[in-house]
Amino acid sequence: MTKPPNFAPGQGCRYCNSGYLLLGLMIERATGSSYRDYVRANVFERAGMHRAGFFRMDVVEPDVAEGVEAMHDPQGRVVGWRRNIYAYPPIGSPDGGAYVTVGDLITFHRALTGGRLLGPQLTAAMLTPHARHAGLSQRSGLTHMMGYGLEFKVTDDGRVRSYHKEGVNLGVSGLLRHYPDHDLTLAILGVGEQAIWEPVRVLDAAVPTT
Fold first, then answer.
1. How confident is the model at residue 203 (pLDDT cuts 50, 70, 90)?
2. Higher confidence at residue 184 or residue 1?
3. Which helix or strand (DSSP H or E) is residue 201 part of?
4. Mean pLDDT over residues 174-182, rounded?
5. pLDDT band for position 135 (50/70/90)?
6. Quick one: which of 74, 89, 173, 199 has the most CB atoms within 10 Å?
7. Is the pLDDT of residue 145 over 80?
8. How many Å apart are CA 153 and CA 146, to the nearest integer?
9. Which of 178, 194, 195 minimizes the C-alpha distance to 186?
10. Number of C-alpha atoms within 13 angstroms, CB side, residue 200?
11. How confident is the model at residue 120, as a pLDDT?
């Protein structure tokens, strides 16, 4: 709390997990409901994400993959596998830890863009870039912009080439990305921090820029 701000309010954007924890507390204060109950009722159920949930890590849940990471020796060879049970709280919180399938991610995106989760003005705001990413420079003719939960790649002429939300932590990685010009949505989940990124690069390169 004693550190100076990175920038004045409204003048920049930088990702921070603590911000999502604060948003979760705001939801609980405003609704009188727990964060997880509110998301179950107003996101998972309303969107039709029937297999999504907040599952306890100390309870065996059918069809739920466990996150693991490879352990390497000094020569880089895999010598074992480490579970991620100490990388997360026992049950998901506002900054992460919900479980979904790739089908749930696609369903969420359709519900969001179809106006079933937010009203027209908030839906439009959610799908609009608002600030240049403070930590990334422009490259390959695309500018990295931040929005309300989503990140955007914007062309020099102002078109949104894609927007996405990614998640990564010890043992897991995931991405939901949409290409508006092609009405193409990519959802991919993997076991391991690095599991999905090479397929994502290949698939992204296959999508025409124009």
1. very high
2. 184
3. helix 197-206
4. 97
5. low
6. 173
7. yes
8. 9
9. 178
10. 20
11. 97
Q: Which two tokens stand for residue 74?
A: 């000094």
Residue written as tokens 């999502």? 20
In the chain, where the domains are located: 17-59+67-206
Write down the CATH number for the domain with range 17-59+67-206.
3.40.710.10
State the Cα–Cα distance between residues 154 and 161, nearest whole angstrom: 6
Q: 189: which strand partners?
A: 174
For residues 86 and 171, what is the distance between their CA atoms, to the nearest angstrom?
11
**CB 185, CB 127: distance < 8 Å:** no
Residues 6+ apart with CB under 8 A from 138: 144
The one-letter amino acid code at 42 reads N
CA 171 and chain centroid, separation? 15
Alpha-carbon span 123 to 114, nearest angstrom: 9
Query: CA 53 from chain center: how many Å?
Result: 15
| H or E element that contains 172 | strand 172-179
Q: Which is nearest to 147 in space by CA: 131, 136, 134?
A: 131
CA angle 110, 169, 184 (to 5 degrees): 25
**Does residue 138 register a pLDDT over 90?**
no
Task: Grade residue 12 by pLDDT with cuts at 50, 70 and 90.
Answer: confident
pTM of the predicted structure, to 2 decimals: 0.89
Spell out the residues 6+ positions from residue 82 whose beta carbon is closer than 8 angstroms to its own: 68, 69, 70, 71, 171
C-alpha 11/C-alpha 14 separation (Å) is 11
